[in-house]
Amino acid sequence: MIPNRSVPQSTVIPQLAYPDVRRAAAWLCDAFGFRVRIFIGDHRVQLHIGDGAMVVTEQKTPGPQRNSGASVMVRVEDVDQHHERARRHGTVILRPPQDYPYGERQYSAEDLNGYIWTFTESIADVKPEDWGGESVEL
Prior knowledge:
Layout: E1 15-18, H1 21-32, E2 35-40, E3 44-49, E4 52-58, E5 71-75, H2 79-88, E6 92-100, E7 104-110, E8 116-122
Parallel strand pairs: 1-4, 5-8
Antiparallel strand pairs: 2-3, 3-4, 6-7, 7-8
């Protein structure tokens, strides 16, 4: 792939729609720690977090996207600190930070448009077979 400054360099780039693109971008930055990369009018915003990216797009249908089936997982350095930041910004916490047998500490939250986000921190390097997984390609 050739580099292009007009698109994030991440391999996977989720796109989520919100009624007010700039308001959503500001909220995602404040509550979840994203950074604005590029504003594209009032209908798109490219955001970064860590080495990942996402695009906020203009929502064409009215109302929140609750139960849309869309969810995003983001790896962070410190889940507890991230959770506290999100909580301070009024984020609806669906599941508080918890350790899992597959070596992750995670919490889940709902954003201002009803999308579900899971934030995860690696706390151990666990072989998938140790918790019931099946290694195929590592």
